[in-house]
Amino acid sequence: MTLPNIMKAKKKPLETVKPADLGVDVSPRLKTLKVVEPPKRSAGVKVADVAALVDKLKLEAKVI
C-alpha cells in the first residue's frame, strides 16, 4: 500500500447493501433470560513454604 493509493481509495464511493437485499435474516435467534454479575473473588492465602503449598493443594483444592 502506498500513500497515493490510500488517498485514491478514500475518494471512491462505498456501496451500502441492506441484509434483506441479500436474502439474509438478521432477526435475533437467542433470548436473554437473565444477566447476573459473576461472584466476587475471595482473598488469596499466603503460605510459608513449598511444603505448606503442596499440602493445601492436596487437601483443600484437591488438584494434586
UniProtKB/TrEMBL annotation:
GO molecular function, one term: electron transfer activity
Keywords annotated in UniProt: Electron transport, Transport
InterPro entries: ETF_b, Rossmann-like_a/b/a_fold
Gene3D superfamilies assigned to the protein according to its UniProt record, in alphabetical order: HUPs
Domain of life: Bacteria
Name of the protein in its database record: Electron transfer flavoprotein subunit beta
Originating organism: Pandoraea eparura
Source organism phylogeny: Bacteria, Pseudomonadati, Pseudomonadota, Betaproteobacteria, Burkholderiales
